[in-house]
Amino acid sequence: MHPKKRKITRNLKHTYITMKVHFTKVALLFLGLGLFLSACGNDASSEEEAEEAVMTTDEFIADANKLGYDEFMKKYPNDSEITLEGEVRAPATWDDKIDAKFGSSLNDLPVSATFTFADNCGSKESTKEKVKGGSVIRFTGKIDGAFFMDGKLSRVGILGCKVQ
């Protein structure tokens, strides 16, 4: 082989190896960046999914009616914590709390939630501002007994509710 050809071949091999190493570095950087972005993206979407996963009071009532008393009490035993979202239909203010009714219409209000002022930042006025008729709120509380009539939920109490 001619010495010039050998030098060109050696230079081409060196260039090929250099390009291969450079391409590998770039590919790994893009792969790492992609994994980082997907990891960050999954955190945000899981938070959104968690927010979307909150059951509405209407869904809760429909689930209770579908389950019946025995299955309802297995799925939602007394003192179990639940988070719901719904429209306040009929709030009633007492000395130390607000009782709010939730349901599909004014004639059908089976969910009764109790919001004490102490559990919701202390003052009567601030709690009344959060829990007012017609507002949609998200709250967490504990199941306190359920009553069924003719296989349908007639009343369920939720105590210690906190507006979120």
Can you walk me through this structure?
By secondary structure, the protein is an alpha/beta fold. It folds into 2 domains: 53 residues; 109 residues, OB fold (Dihydrolipoamide Acetyltransferase, E2P), CATH 2.40.50. Strands 1-2-6-7-5-4-3 form a 7-stranded mixed sheet. Strand 6 and strand 7 form a beta hairpin. The protein is elongated and about 100 Å long. The relative contact order is 0.13.
Give the topology, please:
Layout (H helix, E strand, L loop, with lengths): L2 H50 L2 E2 H19 L5 E7 L2 E4 L3 E6 L8 E6 L7 H7 L5 E14 L2 E12 L1
List key phrases describing it.
46% helix, 2 domains, alpha/beta, OB fold (Dihydrolipoamide Acetyltransferase, E2P)
Concise account of the structure shown:
The chain is of the alpha/beta class and 164 residues long. 46% of the residues lie in helices and 31% in strands.
Uncertain regions: pLDDT < 50 for 5+ in a row?
none
Helix/strand order, N-terminal first: HEHEEEEHEE
CATH fold naming of the largest domain = OB fold (Dihydrolipoamide Acetyltransferase, E2P)
Shape: elongated
Please, how many domains? 2
Strand proportion? 25-35%
> According to CATH, what is the class of the largest domain?
Mainly Beta
Helix content, binned percent: 40-55%
Compute the number of helices. Answer: 3
Largest sheet: number of strands, sense, barrel closure: 7 strands, mixed
User: Which structural category fits the helices and strands?
Assistant: alpha/beta
Radius of gyration: 30 Å
For the record, the CATH architecture of the largest domain stands as Beta Barrel
Assembly classification: single chain
Tell me, rounded to a whole number, the average pLDDT. Answer: 84
Distance between the termini: 81 Å
The total of beta strands comes to 7
Strand order of the largest sheet: 1-2-6-7-5-4-3
